[in-house]
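<derive_structure_tokens>
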Amino acid sequence: MVNDNRKLPNKNRSFVEKSKKTITYLKTKEEFLSRIFENEQMFIVVWTLDGKVAWFNRYTLDVIDIAIEEKIESIDVSTIIPLEITSRIKEHLDYSEDRGIRYKCENPMVLKDGRQIYIMWYNSIIYDEGSKYVVSTGIDITDLKNAERKLEEANSNLLALNEELMAQQEELYKMNEELIAQEEELRQNLIEIQRQQDELEESRERYRLVVEGASDGLWDWDLITDTAYISEKWKDIIGLDKELVNNYYETWTKYIHPRDVKTVINNLHMHLEKKTPFYLCEYRVKTKEGRCVWILSRGKALWNEEGRAIRIAGSNTDISERKQMESKLKYMAYYDPLTDLPRRDVLMDRIKAAVADAKVNGNKLAVLFVDLDNFKTINDSLGHHTGDKLLKKIAKKLTMCLRESDMVSRVGGDEFVILLPDIISVDDTDKVASGILELFNQPIKINSHELDVTGSIGIAIYPDHGKSERAILKNADIAMYKAKERGKNSFQYFDKTMKSEAEFAKTIKRDLSLALEKNQFFLLYQPLVDVKTGKVVGMEALLRWQHPKKGVISPFHFIPIAEETRQIISIGEWVLRTACRQRKEWLNMGYFDFSISVNVSVHQLQWPDFAKVVCDILNEIELESRYLELEITETVLLESVDAVVKNLCHLKEAGVKIIIDDFGIENSSFRYMQKFKADGIKIDRSFVRDINLDVNKAIIDAIILLGHRMKIGVTAEGVETREQLDCLIECGCDEVQGYYFSKPLFPDEAIQMIQKGL
């Protein structure tokens, strides 16, 4: 069908004609704009977000080496714009349609003719029929870059020149300051020279006054002429009649003590030969009164160009008082000031020398370690002043009973060591040890007191009991402790079994410090039985130690060590808390008719806060005090001090019962019993064991009678046979305890025994 506008109505024909004109105009406009974009001296590239080129202008084609393909869409934008630039463009452009944000960046680009230029890219997003395009417009800014670079170089050069000028100016300023300082220094030097000249006469006068007023004797010796100037002080000391002395060497040495002359001359020559920086020597001189004084002589020599000493000057200081003090301190370092006996260091040197002689001569020597048995009691009860007097008397007695070649040393508070060199046989040692014990058997009178003192002696023989001085002394010490264990007031020779026992004790001492921390302690409970009713009226808590290697260890082995190291305080607190907690548990089970008893060490009672600790434990566990009994030994009564008295009184006020354990084995005084209103006494097992002996039965009768007269209960421990029980019942004993009824039991076994009854 032929499109013929003539057939259209006039109105429609007019619209078509206008449309054709519009289209023609738009095409003309598009061609005009296209020529502008195609020939404009800038890069114009339109590309999609996936990196494909949609269109670029002719200028871009002319200057960049692009391989044109049939389909322009197959060209990747990275062939025109570097990949890192397109990546940054994608990161920075905002793709939202409602925001007109643009992004610009720049980068160097190499053209097809080899030139490198800088391009400033302006980038934006356009939308066409739902598709997104990036329009990147690049402008050559190479000239601008070059201009910027030249400007920067010019600025750098200008800055460097400015810094150089400033440095030169600073240098000139410093030079000017130095000139000013030099002028001031010259002026000050002139002033100082003038001042020195003015003071020269003053200095000479001052030197004269110093020489005349000094406590030291001053001297100035001309070695060429052998003449010396000596100050008034030095002249008066040695009794010379003039200050200028000729033949000074001969005159000076005449006053030196003969034994010191060699040392003085040697020290002088050492300095004059430049082997020492100063002349320094201590020596004795004879004064004009005929006595000797110690002086400290100091000096400094002057040498000529050939290195020869031509002059020496110095001073002499009287150091007699210092020497006396040094001698006294030296004596105090090696000798005991109380007894005047040698200390341990002197003893060890003597034993070492005696061992060396014995090796050469094939002889023996003996070391006796002596320790007083009851010195602490005397010292605490009568005071340290009395104890010191006792030690001085014992030291004299020990010295008097020894040979001239023997030696006695005080090595500790109440410990003495005796060295017997060159002994023929053990009989010689026996005689000396027996003589010492005999001395102790005689009362020693101090002021108004007659003191009964005994001693324990340990003996070690070289070479039988040790090859060195340390081994011999150590083994004598071990033997002494064995003598104490075997009843005191005796002597014991060392043997190998003692060493193993000592090593065992050392192991116990070492491991005991960790036993509480590692929960190695546990308690057993031994019942106390009423002899009339046969019922259990108490449980004594007994401490045991489960050693990880040695098994269960008896308190006999570790309690003395715990007391010695003061660990008994923390261990004892653990025992108290554990026993009270166990008694509370039994109360909660409904068992009310018996008490729990705990042994307490004297060290615990001497601790000022002990009573408070006991009360705090009872309050913490919520246990009534009437269920707790504390067992103390008679030693506590003998060693009672203010802290012990206060603790016992506070405990009694709190309702805790106090039982005196092991009654009858110590030399206790009944006046101490008046201080402590005990709630009961326990007869020591040693009397019960041999109760068939009349003397023991009489002692038990007396103890029970005493207890009943004091209206307190009496318990006998160590009951193992029916015969012993019958005798105790006959004597009127109130309670008994021992293996006849039960061994110490674990808590569950103990409560089973109460449930079954006796």
User: Anything to note?
Assistant: The CA atoms of residues 220 and 343 lie 47 Å apart. The chain has a mean pLDDT of 84. The chain has four domains: 40-140, 214-325, 350-494, 511-756. The chain has 25 helices and 27 strands.
